[in-house]
């Protein structure tokens, strides 16, 4: 176990640092300039760190620019072996030796290899994905995708730091802990962080908002392995990812991004973890389950960032009425809008009690997120030109800004099934600046 997993004095797992840390770049004198057909990635399909590089390669559409060589674990040799011999080497350890005679560190994947200078450029996944994101744009088929934009760097780095320790490496800290205390600490930190992410994903489609970033890629490859490997083998078993409402859907969202599923191989993940970490699974039996086909089910997260973006621009919201057939949607909307500091609620007792009813929430949530366009494009706007959510959003903001002045609310959400019976009193004695009727809704099919 201690060879498999280095530990400190209290039995906690310590991950060794990667040792090849050069960067591909255009600055003069750099022996590794960006080029097509020159660099190769060596990966093991079970490995979450290597998987990050495959995801970014795929999202940036670099398949024709950077080639891939696959290694598989050999329990007998205790390390990676090439599926096809590379540079005259059968094992990854030989390959490291050939590139750097006398190398005494671990022979890990991923490896970014320069075929021209015959050198390992870098073997640290967090740095390789930064290079793949920015250094190959002149050759990439998806050059405009920027997973590490300047304005989000601080936020991305903040999530990365937290998630690396508690989640990416956290699952290994659970699995390789050699004392009860070390396991307890790692497991508590892991689930406290997953809970925190779950909350953030309630109102953000991705970790840093509407845009997919490197922080999501880094989290994804751990989440993808969680239910099939870490939950069982590493004892990360407080709950599965699919049991989290937001994290489960977020995992499906990322899995379904173009090209991502092609990088995922759950059978290899199970075989590599259960079949090769002998001290944790001496019999080497590989479990049959779990059924991961749910990853292809709808994620319903397309609108999440958009709703938040719209809501951020409204200061004062009133919610009125809402007991006749609209309770589900109303309850859910109230929950969403409750984040506004200046919320004025005028909902009736029945609606408020529904806030405590999880089934009602689920129904309201399904409605709002599945069919947001229809939900907001009800007759009160009466503008047939408004066809899309974006057009509606622009109009709403324009209306609310234009009529701010003496109104109590920037936005009044009328949750009655019909406005026919609404007197002035229902709108706080004023005509609303904007009235949205969320009414006569039936469950989406
Ligand atoms: N910090 C490295 C970690 C890479 C790593 O630990 N890879 C594992 C596979 S999941 C490995 O190759 N282990 C072989 C060994 O330690 O001998 C990175 O992110 O690139």
TrEMBL record:
Pfam families: AstE_AspA_cat (PF24827), GST_C_2 (PF13410), GST_N_2 (PF13409). Keywords: Hydrolase, Metal-binding, Zinc. Its cofactor is Zn(2+). Residues 149-283 form the GST C-terminal domain. InterPro entries: AstE_AspA_cat, Glutathione-S-Trfase_C-like, Glutathione-S-Trfase_C_sf, Glutathione_S-Trfase, Glutathione_S-Trfase_N, GST_Omega-like_C, GST_Omega/GSH, Thioredoxin-like_sf. It comes from the Bacteria. PANTHER family: GLUTATHIONE S-TRANSFERASE OMEGA-LIKE 1-RELATED, GLUTATHIONYL-HYDROQUINONE REDUCTASE. This is GST C-terminal domain-containing protein. It comes from Nostoc cf. commune SO-36.
């Amino acid at each position: 176990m201690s060879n498999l997993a280095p530990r400190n004095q209290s039995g906690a797992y310590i991950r060794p640092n990667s040792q090849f840390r050069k960067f591909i770049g255009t600055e003069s004198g750099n022996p590794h300039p960006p080029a097509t057909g020159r660099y190769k990635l060596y990966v093991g399909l079970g490995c979450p760190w290597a998987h990050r590089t495959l995801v970014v390669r795929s999202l940036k559409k670099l398949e024709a620019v950077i080639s891939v060589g696959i290694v598989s674990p050999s329990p007998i040799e205790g390390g990676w072996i090439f599926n096809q011999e590379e540079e005259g080497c059968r094992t990854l350890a030989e390959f490291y030796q050939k590139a750097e005679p006398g190398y005494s560190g671990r022979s890990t994947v991923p490896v970014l290899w320069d075929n021209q200078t015959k050198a390992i450029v870098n073997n640290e996944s967090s740095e390789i994905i930064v290079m793949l994101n920015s250094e190959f744009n002149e050759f990439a088929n998806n050059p405009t995708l920027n997973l590490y934009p300047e304005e989000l760097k601080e936020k991305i780095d903040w999530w990365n730091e937290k998630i690396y320790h508690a989640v990416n490496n956290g699952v290994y800290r659970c699995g390789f802990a050699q004392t009860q205390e070390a396991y307890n600490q790692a497991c508590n930190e892991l689930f406290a962080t997953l809970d925190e992410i779950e909350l953030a994903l309630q109102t953000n489609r991705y970790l840093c908002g509407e845009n997919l970033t490197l922080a999501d890629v880094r989290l994804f490859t751990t989440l993808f392995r969680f239910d099939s490997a870490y939950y069982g083998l590493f004892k990360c078993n407080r709950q599965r990812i699919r049991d989290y409402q937001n994290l489960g859907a977020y995992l499906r969202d990322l899995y379904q991004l173009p090209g991502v599923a092609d990088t995922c191989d759950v059978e290899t993940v199970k075989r590599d973890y259960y079949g090769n970490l002998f001290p944790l699974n001496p019999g080497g039996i590989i479990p049959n389950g779990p059924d991961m086909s749910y990853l292809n089910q709808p994620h319903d997260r397309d609108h999440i960032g958009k709703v938040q973006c719209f809501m951020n621009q409204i200061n004062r919201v009133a919610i009125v009425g809402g007991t006749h057939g609209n309770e589900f949607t109303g309850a859910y909307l109230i929950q969403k809008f409750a984040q506004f500091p200046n919320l004025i609620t005028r909902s009736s007792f029945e609606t408020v009690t529904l806030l405590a009813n999880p089934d009602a929430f689920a129904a309201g949530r399904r409605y709002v997120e599945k069919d947001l366009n229809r939900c907001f494009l009800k007759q009160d706007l009466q503008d047939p030109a408004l066809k899309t959510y974006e057009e509606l959003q622009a109009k709403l903001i324009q209306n609310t800004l234009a009529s701010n002045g003496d109104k109590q609310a920037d936005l009044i959400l009328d949750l009655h099934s019909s406005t026919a019976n609404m007197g002035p009193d229902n709108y706080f004695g004023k005509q609303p600046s904007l009235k949205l009727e969320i009414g006569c809704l039936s469950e989406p099919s």
